[in-house]
Amino acid sequence: MPVYKSPILILRCQDWSETSQIVHVLAREIGRLRCLAKGSKRGQNPFSGPLDRWTLGDAVFSQADPNRLATLMELYETERFDGIRRRLPAFYGASCITEIILTIVPDLEAQPAVFDLVVDGLRLLAAVEVEACRAVTLTLVWRLLALLGYVPRLDQCAECGAAISLESPLNFSSGLGGPVCGNCHPPGRIHHLTAKAAQAIAFLLSAGWDEVRRVRLTEATADLIRGLLSARIEELAGRKLSALRYV
Ligand SMILES: [Zn+2]
What predicted TM-score, i.e. pTM, was given to this entire model? Predict the structure, then answer.
């Protein structure tokens, strides 16, 4: 049976029996998968279980058949992001990003850049002031969608590729997940953004995390970004997610 080693982030845990759990993980070298952690709730087990979400560690697991559960054989925990569990805005942010990963990140596709982004984001959420959690979370969600190829660049039309200026108001298509020029009229909802709002989004996407954590989004700008992201995620998932509601 093939055995793999990879850093993993635990996204969700479900009880499987009196003594075991099923864990949904993002594995840096494998992608998203589900593993059976046999005996993880027993007194002595190879995982220091019971396992909890938002645990980062180095794992060994086996997987005979990609259509079936993998088996978690060992886990050496390296980080637990405790700051997320202690503060509500950080908790909502981490819950949001977790729900989105579980919904739109494809199974069993290695995406090291996605893994690194999410781990950096959770580490930041665990550490930043509560007032910064909203900007960090919304930026993290947008960057995640961009890495997965679900939102194109802000400075060109998502349909025809024409250059788009951020100096003037912007039309944003939730079907395409990006801005559209005056000549393109894709089906689906069009959101109208002021130049200021478009510039705020462009800044969040290009700034370093040290700058993002200093941003305090106004309610209006946060509402707008939440609206764009929710509409895009709904398009991708085919259903509404509650993820962004509390961010
Ligand atoms: Zn166009």
Answer: 0.93
